[in-house]
Prior knowledge:
Structural class: mainly alpha
Oligomer: single chain
Strand content: under 5%
Helix content: 55-70%
Number of helices: 6
Largest sheet: none
CATH architecture: Orthogonal Bundle
Amino acid sequence: MSGGLSPLNYRVREFRVLLQATRLRRNPMEKSIYTKDYAIFLQCLRQARKRAGLTQQHIAERLETTQSVISKCERGERRIDVVELREFCKAIGISLREFIESLESAIESISQSECD
């Protein structure tokens, strides 16, 4: 972290940069991979893995797939369904519920910061 930002403020800034870089629109009918919430989902997925001290290769081995597949999932090039997300969470060592709670918290934090 730089500039003495708190972890939450750093995360908010990180998400804003990500959103600006990908030029996400707010069209409610657009595909979910192009929404702000999906960008937050991907960030939470990467953060959960990193917090667990795991590499993409570690996750790939646990899920019996390749590191390339994990990378594509984390970048949004390959969509993850709820069953795959549950397996991903198990490989990280967290419950699906914990991940969803973290995701909801991140989405709410970003939404509130946009209102400020």
